Amino acid sequence: MRTKNEHKTAILVFALSSKEELKCKKINKAKVLFQALSDHALKTVQKTGMPYFHITEKEQRGNCFGERFANAIQFVYDRGFDQVITIGNDSPQLKAAQILKSASELSPGKAVLGPSNDGGFYLMGLHKTDFNSASFRNLPWQSSQLWNQFNADLESFNVEIVELRKFLDIDSENDLKIILKFTKGLTNHIFKVIISILLPNSIPVRIVASIMGLFQLYIHQNRGSPIFLSMSSF
Questions:
Q1: Helix (H) or strand (E) holding 178
Q2: Does any domain span residue 231?
Q3: Global pTM?
Q4: N or C: which end of the chain has fewer CB within 10 A?
């Protein structure tokens, strides 16, 4: 699948390394989890065939999150691209097809946003003429007010917003329990990593394998429908 904007749009993967994620998100086996999520995000981006930049804490410049994010976006524009699609590494439901569709929607005066459950966004697509660096830096980053404020800012700049479906950002072990209720979008590897985190270490391997098999059966039969199995005992 190719898009009309492919030649002038780049993807920015703006995310911390799994080592740094350990300091921010207190999740059991977080290093394994976020390594899997980072690998998945990069593979998803590579499937689009679009040019991309992966900017971790090693390349980020600025004194606060908003400044570092704004500088990373400007860095991509400065490489000659007219449009940037930014994603993180903590929304494993995101597919390459959705990124390509976002690219096809972008144009001056038209942005694409994918809302996340925590009041932020997992994807943002923006033309360089609609990027206001000062306003962007001053958004209420990492708060539940981010989505509302950013929408208000874009509307004040007369930018039309194309809204994608809402996805879950993984910030806690409770998010892992929630995302397992929806099978669509999870790879087998990420699924197994999440199960290994949620299940107590004392459960024998044969039982873990049996539970994994049961979940995989539901995945095959339901193809993205919710799994109504209790996670309360994990």
A1: helix 173-179
A2: no
A3: 0.80
A4: N
